[in-house]
């Protein structure tokens, strides 16, 4: 399969002050998908502008025609499957069936603490995994069935109506972010794609070679999870969200550097790479002209 190149546009610009232009330019450059993060706030961007993912994607859907759109990633940290399903069905309709839902268990950042009362503690990794394990199957049902009644440990739905359903059938695709066994099983059972950022333990002190070996092991584990679920792992797209491996932003320094990086990860079985749209003065700073050259020329060089 030919490698796909996608981008991630962080929701940090006012729509009428360059926000709209980024999404339109992403379509002009030929990116496969333009994603955005679904957070209440995120890392060093916390004290600056940060807009909501679903309204941003709705606006992007009306500003573009062919570009696929999605989240990387939505999580249970502040979402409920019933209300999320209604928003996704609406968004898929407005876009004409161009939405991919990136979905993960969530982390321990601001999303995990913003809604807490003073004496409450954030969910532990196990608790996040428990909720994720209930969230994904319920959301799957909500997006494929006209009416859903469900009572679980964490979530419930009482005759939740979701007519007419997604524009994409049987529902919009899930790109499940996972590296642990429980998450990989969810990806194997419910995903049309799998997402990883690599091994976070290697980000600070690991080498690119160590990172690729860790990614190889993750791909192998995904294959085993798919085999246990009775699925062919080749059915799932494999997405690497770049910028979080020891390579950091260096692949965007030149076209040759990116082609080398992309080729090495394509050999591991990845079918899609997502690169961050440059943001000056941030961890995602990059030369815009080099970035656009990568967007238009890199994939053709990979064959």
Summarize the structure in words.
The N and C termini lie close together (10 Å). The mean pLDDT is 97. Helix 5 packs parallel to helix 6 and helix 6 crosses helix 7. The longest helix is centred in the last third of the chain and has 21 residues. The protein is of the alpha/beta class. The radius of gyration is 19 Å and the shape is globular. The protein contains nine helices and ten strands.
Q: What is the overall silhouette?
A: globular
How much helix is in the residues? 25-40%
How much strand?
Answer: 15-25%
Q: What is the helix tally?
A: 9
Number of strands: 10
* Major sheet: arrangement of strands: 1-2-3-4-7-8-9-10
Structural category is: alpha/beta
Mean of pLDDT? 97
Compact overview of the structure:
This protein is an alpha/beta fold and 303 residues long. Helices cover 39% and strands 17% of the residues. The strands form 2 sheets. It has an 8-stranded parallel beta barrel, surrounded by 6 helices. The protein has a two-stranded antiparallel sheet with strand order 5-6.
Task: Furnish the topology, listing elements before pairings.
Blueprint: E1 4-8, H1 19-29, E2 33-36, H2 53-63, E3 68-74, H3 81-95, E4 99-103, H4 110-113, H5 125-144, E5 147-151, E6 156-161, E7 174-177, H6 181-190, E8 193-196, H7 208-228, E9 237-241, H8 255-266, E10 272-276, H9 288-302
Helix pairs in contact: 2-3, 3-5, 5-6, 6-7, 8-9
Features:
globular, 10 strands, single chain, eight-stranded parallel barrel, 303 residues, alpha/beta, two-stranded antiparallel ribbon
